[in-house]
Amino acid sequence: MDGNSERLLTPGEVAALFRVDPKTVTRWAASGRISSIRTPGGHRRFRETEVRDLLDGNVSSAEAGSR
């Protein structure tokens, strides 16, 4: 493994943390509120640290990811 071994979350896992529907998480990603990574199969994954920052109200990490 390289230094880029951060845990990635599924839309369902992110939705559970925020207590919203997974489709809401997908809309957030589409609007740039949170950045996502696409798997080779085309599925979205979200960096755990960015999700935690957004959950804690620290948007600087989330804003940096959308640039």
Brief summary of the model shown:
The protein is an alpha+beta fold.
Structural write-up:
The protein starts with 7 loop residues before the first strand and ends with a helix. Strands 1-3-2 form a three-stranded antiparallel β-sheet. The protein has helices spanning 11-18, 22-31, 48-55, 60-65; strands spanning 8-9, 37-38, 44-47. The mean pLDDT is 86. Helix 1 (11-18) packs across helix 2 (22-31). The longest helix is centred in the middle third of the chain and has 10 residues, at 22-31. A hairpin with a 5-residue loop joins strand 2 (37-38) and strand 3 (44-47). It has a single domain, classed as Orthogonal Bundle (Multidrug-efflux Transporter Regulator, Chain: A, Domain 2), CATH 1.10.1660.10. With 67 residues, it is of the alpha+beta class. It is globular.
- Rough shape? globular
* Average pLDDT rating: 86
Q: Decide which structural class fits the backbone.
A: alpha+beta
CA-CA gap between termini: 26 Å
Notable characteristics:
67 residues; alpha+beta; Multidrug-efflux Transporter Regulator, Chain: A, Domain 2; 3-stranded antiparallel β-sheet
